Amino acid sequence: MSPQHIIPAAMLALATFAPFHASAADTNANPGANPGPVYAGASYGFRASTGLDCAPGQQNCDKSSKRNGKAYVGYSFDALPFQGGVAVPAIELVGYTSGSVTSGFDTGAGKVAGRGKFNGAGVQGVLGYQFDAFTLSGRAGLAYTQGKVDYATGGSDKENKAGLMYGLGAAYALNKNWSLHLDWDRVPVKYSGSQKTKADMFSLGASYRF
Length: 210
What we know:
single chain; mainly beta; 1 helix; elongated; disordered N terminus
Protein backbone atom coordinates (compact mmCIF):
# COMPACT_ATOMS: atom_id res chain seq x y z
CA MET A 1 0.00 0.00 0.00
CA SER A 2 1.41 3.39 -1.03
CA PRO A 3 1.88 6.29 1.44
CA GLN A 4 -0.97 8.12 -0.27
CA HIS A 5 -3.28 5.23 0.68
CA ILE A 6 -1.86 4.74 4.18
CA ILE A 7 -2.18 8.34 5.35
CA PRO A 8 -5.89 8.82 4.57
CA ALA A 9 -6.72 5.35 5.89
CA ALA A 10 -4.89 5.99 9.15
CA MET A 11 -6.56 9.37 9.60
CA LEU A 12 -9.98 7.89 8.89
CA ALA A 13 -9.35 5.23 11.52
CA LEU A 14 -8.13 7.82 14.03
CA ALA A 15 -11.11 10.08 13.46
CA THR A 16 -13.49 7.12 13.77
CA PHE A 17 -12.13 5.51 16.93
CA ALA A 18 -10.74 8.48 18.83
CA PRO A 19 -14.18 9.78 19.91
CA PHE A 20 -15.01 6.41 21.50
CA HIS A 21 -11.70 6.44 23.37
CA ALA A 22 -12.38 9.96 24.56
CA SER A 23 -15.92 9.07 25.59
CA ALA A 24 -14.63 6.26 27.77
CA ALA A 25 -12.06 8.55 29.36
CA ASP A 26 -14.72 11.19 30.07
CA THR A 27 -16.64 8.86 32.39
CA ASN A 28 -14.12 9.67 35.13
CA ALA A 29 -13.70 13.32 34.16
CA ASN A 30 -15.55 16.42 35.25
CA PRO A 31 -18.71 16.48 33.10
CA GLY A 32 -18.76 20.28 33.22
CA ALA A 33 -15.19 20.76 31.99
CA ASN A 34 -14.60 22.51 28.70
CA PRO A 35 -12.95 20.44 25.96
CA GLY A 36 -9.36 21.10 24.94
CA PRO A 37 -7.91 22.50 21.71
CA VAL A 38 -7.45 19.14 19.91
CA TYR A 39 -10.19 17.77 17.66
CA ALA A 40 -10.69 15.10 15.02
CA GLY A 41 -13.32 14.49 12.40
CA ALA A 42 -14.36 12.57 9.31
CA SER A 43 -16.73 13.32 6.44
CA TYR A 44 -18.43 11.38 3.67
CA GLY A 45 -17.99 13.05 0.30
CA PHE A 46 -21.31 12.62 -1.46
CA ARG A 47 -19.96 14.23 -4.63
CA ALA A 48 -16.55 15.16 -6.06
CA SER A 49 -16.73 17.04 -9.35
CA THR A 50 -13.73 17.30 -11.69
CA GLY A 51 -12.74 19.34 -14.71
CA LEU A 52 -12.49 16.22 -16.87
CA ASP A 53 -14.23 15.79 -20.24
CA CYS A 54 -15.63 12.65 -21.83
CA ALA A 55 -13.67 10.94 -24.59
CA PRO A 56 -15.28 10.98 -28.08
CA GLY A 57 -18.00 8.34 -28.24
CA GLN A 58 -17.49 7.29 -24.60
CA GLN A 59 -20.39 5.45 -22.99
CA ASN A 60 -21.42 5.78 -19.30
CA CYS A 61 -19.32 8.91 -18.80
CA ASP A 62 -19.69 10.49 -15.36
CA LYS A 63 -17.21 13.27 -14.58
CA SER A 64 -17.81 13.09 -10.82
CA SER A 65 -17.45 10.46 -8.10
CA LYS A 66 -19.93 9.78 -5.33
CA ARG A 67 -17.96 7.72 -2.80
CA ASN A 68 -15.34 10.00 -1.33
CA GLY A 69 -14.05 10.73 2.13
CA LYS A 70 -11.82 12.91 4.23
CA ALA A 71 -10.52 12.79 7.78
CA TYR A 72 -8.60 15.31 9.81
CA VAL A 73 -7.04 16.11 13.15
CA GLY A 74 -6.62 19.70 14.26
CA TYR A 75 -5.44 22.10 16.92
CA SER A 76 -7.34 25.33 17.60
CA PHE A 77 -5.70 28.43 19.03
CA ASP A 78 -7.16 31.06 21.37
CA ALA A 79 -10.42 32.57 20.14
CA LEU A 80 -10.57 36.30 19.40
CA PRO A 81 -13.77 38.37 19.87
CA PHE A 82 -15.05 39.67 16.54
CA GLN A 83 -18.32 41.32 15.48
CA GLY A 84 -20.48 39.75 18.16
CA GLY A 85 -18.91 36.31 17.79
CA VAL A 86 -15.41 34.90 17.99
CA ALA A 87 -12.74 34.20 15.38
CA VAL A 88 -11.08 30.82 15.92
CA PRO A 89 -7.80 30.07 14.09
CA ALA A 90 -6.66 26.45 13.79
CA ILE A 91 -4.27 24.18 11.94
CA GLU A 92 -5.21 20.76 10.53
CA LEU A 93 -3.68 17.64 9.06
CA VAL A 94 -6.14 16.21 6.54
CA GLY A 95 -6.35 13.09 4.38
CA TYR A 96 -8.51 12.53 1.30
CA THR A 97 -9.68 9.49 -0.62
CA SER A 98 -11.89 9.54 -3.71
CA GLY A 99 -14.23 7.19 -5.44
CA SER A 100 -13.86 6.30 -9.10
CA VAL A 101 -14.64 8.80 -11.85
CA THR A 102 -15.39 7.52 -15.36
CA SER A 103 -14.33 10.03 -18.00
CA GLY A 104 -11.80 10.85 -20.70
CA PHE A 105 -8.15 11.40 -19.78
CA ASP A 106 -5.55 13.25 -21.82
CA THR A 107 -2.63 11.15 -23.06
CA GLY A 108 0.10 11.51 -25.63
CA ALA A 109 -2.23 9.73 -28.07
CA GLY A 110 -5.19 12.03 -27.35
CA LYS A 111 -8.15 11.72 -24.98
CA VAL A 112 -8.77 8.12 -23.88
CA ALA A 113 -11.69 6.73 -21.84
CA GLY A 114 -10.81 5.41 -18.41
CA ARG A 115 -11.56 5.22 -14.73
CA GLY A 116 -9.58 7.35 -12.29
CA LYS A 117 -9.31 7.95 -8.56
CA PHE A 118 -6.97 9.69 -6.13
CA ASN A 119 -5.74 9.72 -2.54
CA GLY A 120 -3.80 12.40 -0.72
CA ALA A 121 -2.92 14.32 2.41
CA GLY A 122 -2.09 17.86 3.38
CA VAL A 123 -1.75 20.56 6.01
CA GLN A 124 -4.00 23.60 6.13
CA GLY A 125 -4.77 26.68 8.17
CA VAL A 126 -8.39 27.25 9.16
CA LEU A 127 -10.11 30.46 10.27
CA GLY A 128 -13.58 30.05 11.71
CA TYR A 129 -16.15 32.62 12.76
CA GLN A 130 -18.29 31.23 15.58
CA PHE A 131 -21.60 32.67 16.72
CA ASP A 132 -23.81 30.75 19.10
CA ALA A 133 -23.77 27.10 17.95
CA PHE A 134 -22.84 27.93 14.34
CA THR A 135 -19.39 28.27 12.78
CA LEU A 136 -18.49 29.43 9.28
CA SER A 137 -14.92 28.73 8.18
CA GLY A 138 -12.44 29.13 5.37
CA ARG A 139 -9.27 27.11 4.93
CA ALA A 140 -6.21 26.94 2.71
CA GLY A 141 -3.02 24.89 2.65
CA LEU A 142 -0.79 22.53 0.73
CA ALA A 143 -1.83 19.08 -0.49
CA TYR A 144 0.06 16.13 -1.93
CA THR A 145 -2.08 13.73 -3.94
CA GLN A 146 -1.58 10.64 -6.05
CA GLY A 147 -3.93 10.05 -8.96
CA LYS A 148 -4.32 6.84 -10.93
CA VAL A 149 -6.21 6.06 -14.12
CA ASP A 150 -6.99 2.65 -15.66
CA TYR A 151 -7.69 3.02 -19.37
CA ALA A 152 -10.59 1.21 -21.02
CA THR A 153 -8.25 0.14 -23.81
CA GLY A 154 -5.78 -1.36 -21.33
CA GLY A 155 -2.84 0.03 -19.39
CA SER A 156 -2.74 2.63 -16.63
CA ASP A 157 -0.98 5.76 -15.42
CA LYS A 158 -0.13 7.07 -11.96
CA GLU A 159 1.10 10.55 -11.06
CA ASN A 160 1.78 12.61 -7.94
CA LYS A 161 0.78 16.25 -7.55
CA ALA A 162 1.63 18.91 -4.95
CA GLY A 163 -0.40 22.09 -4.92
CA LEU A 164 -2.76 24.48 -3.18
CA MET A 165 -5.93 23.20 -1.56
CA TYR A 166 -8.68 25.39 -0.14
CA GLY A 167 -12.29 25.27 0.92
CA LEU A 168 -15.26 26.58 2.88
CA GLY A 169 -17.38 25.00 5.57
CA ALA A 170 -20.28 25.38 7.97
CA ALA A 171 -20.64 23.60 11.31
CA TYR A 172 -23.29 23.23 13.99
CA ALA A 173 -22.28 22.32 17.54
CA LEU A 174 -24.53 19.66 19.08
CA ASN A 175 -22.79 20.09 22.44
CA LYS A 176 -19.33 21.02 23.77
CA ASN A 177 -17.71 18.03 22.06
CA TRP A 178 -19.68 17.03 18.97
CA SER A 179 -20.29 19.10 15.82
CA LEU A 180 -21.86 18.43 12.44
CA HIS A 181 -20.15 19.73 9.28
CA LEU A 182 -21.00 20.61 5.68
CA ASP A 183 -17.83 21.26 3.63
CA TRP A 184 -16.53 22.10 0.19
CA ASP A 185 -12.89 21.33 -0.60
CA ARG A 186 -10.90 21.91 -3.78
CA VAL A 187 -7.97 19.49 -4.15
CA PRO A 188 -5.32 19.38 -6.92
CA VAL A 189 -5.11 16.06 -8.81
CA LYS A 190 -2.88 14.71 -11.60
CA TYR A 191 -3.91 11.41 -13.18
CA SER A 192 -1.23 11.17 -15.86
CA GLY A 193 1.63 13.14 -17.36
CA SER A 194 -0.87 14.93 -19.62
CA GLN A 195 -3.93 15.11 -17.36
CA LYS A 196 -4.16 17.37 -14.34
CA THR A 197 -7.30 18.89 -12.85
CA LYS A 198 -8.94 19.85 -9.57
CA ALA A 199 -11.55 17.91 -7.60
CA ASP A 200 -14.35 19.80 -5.86
CA MET A 201 -15.46 17.61 -2.95
CA PHE A 202 -18.76 18.24 -1.17
CA SER A 203 -19.08 16.36 2.12
CA LEU A 204 -21.11 15.85 5.29
CA GLY A 205 -19.50 14.71 8.53
CA ALA A 206 -18.90 15.13 12.22
CA SER A 207 -16.05 16.11 14.52
CA TYR A 208 -15.19 15.55 18.17
CA ARG A 209 -13.30 17.98 20.39
CA PHE A 210 -11.28 16.30 23.14
